From TrEMBL:
<dbReference type="InterPro" id="IPR018198">
    <property type="entry name" value="ATP_PRibTrfase_CS"/>
</dbReference>
<dbReference type="InterPro" id="IPR024893">
    <property type="entry name" value="ATP_PRibTrfase_HisG_short"/>
</dbReference>
<keyword id="KW-0028">Amino-acid biosynthesis</keyword>
<dbReference type="Pfam" id="PF01634">
    <property type="entry name" value="HisG"/>
</dbReference>
<comment type="subunit">
    <text>Heteromultimer composed of HisG and HisZ subunits.</text>
</comment>
<keyword id="KW-0547">Nucleotide-binding</keyword>
<protein>
    <recommendedName>
        <fullName>ATP phosphoribosyltransferase</fullName>
        <ecNumber>2.4.2.17</ecNumber>
    </recommendedName>
</protein>
<comment type="similarity">
    <text>Belongs to the ATP phosphoribosyltransferase family. Short subfamily.</text>
</comment>
<keyword id="KW-0368">Histidine biosynthesis</keyword>
<keyword id="KW-0808">Transferase</keyword>
<keyword id="KW-0963">Cytoplasm</keyword>
<comment type="function">
    <text>Catalyzes the condensation of ATP and 5-phosphoribose 1-diphosphate to form N'-(5'-phosphoribosyl)-ATP (PR-ATP). Has a crucial role in the pathway because the rate of histidine biosynthesis seems to be controlled primarily by regulation of HisG enzymatic activity.</text>
</comment>
<keyword id="KW-0328">Glycosyltransferase</keyword>
<dbReference type="InterPro" id="IPR001348">
    <property type="entry name" value="ATP_PRibTrfase_HisG"/>
</dbReference>
<dbReference type="InterPro" id="IPR013820">
    <property type="entry name" value="ATP_PRibTrfase_cat"/>
</dbReference>
<feature type="domain" description="ATP phosphoribosyltransferase catalytic">
    <location>
        <begin position="51"/>
        <end position="206"/>
    </location>
</feature>
<comment type="pathway">
    <text>Amino-acid biosynthesis; L-histidine biosynthesis; L-histidine from 5-phospho-alpha-D-ribose 1-diphosphate: step 1/9.</text>
</comment>
């Protein structure tokens, strides 16, 4: 049995065409069913539904043989996973945003300490350290946009796709941290034990990604 960890929502939706190209169709719609384990048209392949940020944990510790997770989630999770394949799905960017009346460039040039609220503390720490910018990081779990509006922080580091959420909250994107897309991650032990079927699945995904780009 091969177990693939996916999260509900965009990663599940965007993974369906790749699965289909690999000859696999899921037998249930997670938005309609409460099941957390979903069978597929391949009797030896099943999908487990987990929180997006839990995918690396499932794959690292063998709860799943492979999984799909955003680069943001993987970088926050840290080491311990093979990162073999950029699936080019769930694409967005990690950016710094501030209130329009906050002069980010000035603060950076002055060497001021900047208060940054984010869910992505590892990525933010690495980004500002590389730039030599001093920051006080404030860990949040959601609705980062609120932080600059309430005076909790000067800036946020968050995922942006269209920018409409920032705009709706009078925030401006002042710096791109990195481009983000989802990756197929594989459990190294599973890759040894189930080498042939996993290799075939990874290759099929790879070809599907190639064909789509
Ligand atoms: P949870 O809902 O469990 O807290 P989450 O918010 O990280 O987790 P999703 O919103 O499904 O879950 O996001 C999954 C992944 O999709 C993210 O890790 C990121 O890589 C990517 N992503 C997030 N927002 C966008 C977006 N607006 N456009 C495209 N991709 C995105
Ligand atoms: Mg989300």
């Amino acid at each position: 049995m091969i177990t693939l960890a996916l999260s509900k929502g965009r990663i599940f939706e965007d993974s369906l065409p790749l699965l289909k190209a690999a000859g696999i169709e899921v037998l249930e719609d997670p938005e309609k069913s409460r099941k957390l384990i979903i069978g597929t048209t391949r009797p030896d392949v099943r999908v487990v539904l987990v929180r997006a940020s839990d995918v690396p944990t499932y794959v690292q510790h063998g709860g799943a043989d492979l999984g799909v997770a955003g680069l943001d989630v993987l970088l926050e999770h840290g080491d311990g996973l093979y990162r073999p394949l950029d699936l080019r799905i769930a694409r967005c960017r990690m950016s710094v945003a501030t209130r329009a009346d906050f002069d980010y460039g000035h603060a950076v040039r002055q060497g001021s300490r900047i208060r940054v609220a984010t869910k992505y503390t590892q990525i933010a720490r690495q980004h500002f350290a590389a730039k030599g910018v001093h920051v006080d990081l404030i860990k949040l779990y959601g609705s980062m946009e609120l932080a600059p509006l309430t005076g909790l922080a000067d800036a946020i580091v968050d995922l942006v796709s269209t920018g409409s959420t920032l705009k709706a909250n009078n925030l401006v994107e002042v710096e791109k941290v990195m481009d983000i897309s989802s990756r197929l991650v594989v459990n190294p032990a599973a890759l040894k034990l189930k080498r042939a079927p996993l290799r075939a699945l990874i290759d099929a995904f790879e070809q599907a990604v190639e064909a789509r780009s």
